[in-house]
């Protein structure tokens, strides 16, 4: 059993949990993920490790409630236990020799992008962060992002934070005055697609972190297959990071919608107890 040692709501649908999982904490690196089951009948759900403490043996995840399992997870409190935590899975992000990096996060993707920014900033690289959210109330991790970069630009779709726009607007503006060796983009597939179209035009190498449906997370089921450079790759063992200019985003968008109807039914069947005594 894996104890939740800390639980915090970052906004109405995003939660930060710390979990005691010493074997994962011992080895995990930025870019890697874990798979957990809430209870023994639960489905396996992947989450990026957003932070870790090798001494205390804890790992941190930041997750959004999007369906039945994440809702069930969000009802857990510090002191509760999870049935399984497996990891670290996937490959750590490889930054090459990049010195000037623009890290782009969209919504919850900021939680996945933050460990990358943190690692690069701690290594003395020049990091700028561009973050995009639907509205001001959904902005998360602003303080942590600010502490781990040189310039932070936060955009909202509706302009409610006083800065209306898309992350691609921010990248176009920053790239006009600064040179970047690398862009790291993590967020909704559609956002990553449009960032990559822009960085192709600007000739900026770009890493994206892909989030296809995963089941075993060890390369056996084929559920997470994506096409990269015309070749089938498994995001769980070959990724989750890939060269964004080689990814077939349209196929990924189609595949991620495969279970939409089934997921809607399960979510509707879930009795949400958030906010109840
Ligand atoms: C490598 C990786 C890292 C991820 N990291 C994070 C993270 O740090 N924080 C976070 O909030 N989410 C993360 N996700 C997405 C997270 O796994 C899904 O939101 C979660 O599985 C949804 O489960 P659900 O039952 O609540 O929702 P459902 O109603 O079952 O599904 C809602 C949506 O979540 C996605 N999803 C569902 N099941 C899976 C699955 N087994 N694998 C991948 N995606 C799925 C699909 O896009 C689906 O449409 C990550 C996914 C991957 C592949
Ligand atoms: S999740 Fe099964 S092969 Fe990747």
Q: Could you describe the 3D structure shown?
A:
There is one protein chain. The chain folds into 2 domains: 88 residues, Elongation Factor Tu (Ef-tu), domain 3; 157 residues, Rossmann fold. Helix 6 runs antiparallel to helix 8. It is of the alpha/beta class and 277 residues long. The protein contains 9 helices and 16 strands. The strands form 4 sheets. A 6-stranded mixed β-sheet has the order 11-10-9-12-13-16, with helices on both faces. A 5-stranded antiparallel β-sheet has the order 5-6-2-1-7. The structure holds flavin-adenine dinucleotide and FE2/S2 (inorganic) cluster. The site of FE2/S2 (inorganic) cluster has 12 residues, from loops.
The number of domains is 2
Query: Could you name the ranges where pLDDT drops below 50 across 5 or more consecutive residues?
Result: none
> What's the name of the CATH homologous superfamily of the largest domain?
Nucleotide-binding domain of ferredoxin-NADP reductase (FNR) module
Question: In this structure, how is the largest beta sheet organized?
Answer: 6 strands, mixed
Gross morphology is globular
Strands, count: 16
Q: What class would the helix/strand composition place it in?
A: alpha/beta
List the ions, cofactors and other small molecules found in this model: flavin-adenine dinucleotide, FE2/S2 (inorganic) cluster
From the N-terminal CA to the C-terminal CA, the straight-line distance is 25 Å
């Amino acid at each position: 059993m894996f104890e939740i040692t800390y639980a915090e709501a970052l906004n109405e649908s995003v939660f930060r949990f710390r979990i005691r999982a010493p074997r994962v904490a011992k080895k995990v690196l930025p870019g890697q993920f874990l798979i957990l089951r809430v209870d023994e009948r639960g489905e396996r759900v992947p989450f990026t490790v957003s932070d870790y403490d090798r001494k205390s043996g804890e790992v941190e995840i930041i997750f959004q409630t999007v369906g039945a399992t994440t809702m069930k997870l969000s009802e857990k409190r510090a002191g509760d236990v999870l049935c399984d935590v497996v990891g670290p899975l996937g490959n750590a992000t490889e930054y090459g020799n990049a010195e000037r990096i623009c890290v782009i996060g969209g919504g919850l993707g900021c939680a996945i992008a933050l460990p990358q920014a943190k690692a690069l900033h701690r290594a003395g690289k020049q990091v700028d962060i561009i973050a995009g959210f639907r509205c001001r109330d959904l902005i998360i991790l602003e303080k942590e992002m600010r502490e781990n970069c040189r310039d932070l630009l936060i955009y909202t779709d509706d302009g409610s934070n006083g800065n209306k726009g898309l992350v691609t607007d921010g990248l176009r503006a920053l790239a006009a005055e600064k040179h970047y060796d690398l862009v790291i983009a993590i967020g909704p597939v559609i956002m990553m697609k449009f960032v990559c179209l822009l960085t192709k035009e600007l000739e900026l190498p770009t890493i994206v972190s892909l989030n296809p449906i995963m089941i075993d997370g060890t390369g056996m089921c084929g559920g997470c297959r994506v096409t990269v450079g015309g070749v089938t790759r498994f995001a769980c063992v070959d990724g989750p990071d890939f060269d964004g200019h080689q990814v077939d985003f349209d196929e990924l968008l189609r595949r991620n919608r495969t279970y939409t109807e089934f997921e809607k039914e399960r979510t509707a069947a879930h009795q949400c107890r958030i906010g109840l005594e």
